[in-house]
TrEMBL record:
Gene source species: Amnimonas aquatica
Alphabetic keyword roster: Oxidoreductase
Gene3D superfamilies on file: NADH Oxidase
Name of the featured protein: Nitroreductase family protein
Pfam family, one: Nitroreductase
């Protein structure tokens, strides 16, 4: 059951509003254990991942936050032996790929913005689509269309640069590179959900960007507007599956209160 279907409305300032209360009893220690016990595992045992676990993890991946709610991702669980063998090779025959019970190719797509904007308006989860929301999803496809040779992007950038002299304006994503980055950000968040979900189920993963993008594209028959963000190997951690203790530099290098 989705979170939304369990919820009701609340009256705020005399107006009826959607109400989804923050759950109070999340076990932070269980979450912390999931996060801190996640390691990149490079060697897995031969134990398979039950289908129900795999499905649950993928479902949790799909709940990751995503820009404008547009879910610019796809996950290919590569099972066919011949395809899997090719994928292992495309992953430079890394041990993490060779020994993984499952190999999941995580793909970002930039070509479904218009289709999903329309779908969003059709499937809006409340009886009426607010005017602002309607307008937003009508505009978004234009916003994310770079045009031939980034021609639309150049015009939009120039226009917003002028507007930006007097007010805060969106500076992108306009160019095709920016739109790819846009899709990759949300896809990477789903990847993190996926690996944490596997960990919570007692399985482990290795995110891999060490792969031959051209070979993976060919193997999956991906269109030009899709690209592989990472390949995730998953399985049961072998006793010698983690190669060294986790390394993280001093907190001060990364966390700033300004
Ligand atoms: C985007 C990304 C790509 C990665 N690619 C590889 C890879 O190709 N092969 C590999 O063995 N590890 C890969 N890793 C794992 C990192 O090396 C690992 O996360 C890092 O060393 C920190 O270790 P930890 O994950 O155990 O905390 C990748 C991690 C990320 C986030």
């Amino acid at each position: 059951m989705s979170a939304a279907s369990k919820n009701a409305t609340v009256t705020v300032d005399g107006k009826t509003r959607y109400h989804e209360p923050a759950p109070a009893h999340i076990d932070v220690e269980a979450f912390r254990q999931t996060v801190i016990s996640r390691r990149s595992v490079r060697k897995f045992t031969a134990t398979p991942i039950p289908q129900a676990v795999l499905d649950d993890c993928l479902d949790m991946a799909l709940l990751a936050p995503c820009s404008s709610g547009l879910q610019p991702w796809e996950f290919y669980v590569v099972r066919t032996p011949a395809k899997k063998a090719k994928l292992v090779k495309a992953c430079m025959s890394q041990l993490a790929a060779k020994t993984a019970a499952e190999l999941i190719v995580c793909v970002a797509r930039t070509d479904r913005v218009e289709e999903f904007s329309r779908k969003m308006l059709r499937e809006w989860p409340m009886p009426d689509v607010p005017k602002l929301v309607q307008r937003y999803y009508q505009l978004i496809p234009y916003n994310y269309a770079p045009g031939p040779l980034n021609s639309f992007a150049v015009v939009k950038k120039a226009a917003f640069a002028v507007g930006g002299l007097v007010a805060a304006v969106p500076r992108g994503p306009y160019t095709s590179a920016e739109v790819r980055l846009w899709a990759a950000k949300s896809t990477a968040l789903a990847c993190e959900n996926l690996v944490l979900a596997f960990r919570a189920h007692g399985f482990d993963t290795c995110m891999m960007e060490g792969f031959d993008e051209v070979r993976v594209r060919k193997l999956l028959g991906l269109p030009d507007e899709a690209f592989t963000v990472m390949v995730i190997g998953a399985g049961e951690r072998a006793d010698d599956g983690v190669f060294w203790p986790q390394i993280r530099f001093e907190r001060e290098l990364f966390v700033h209160e300004v």
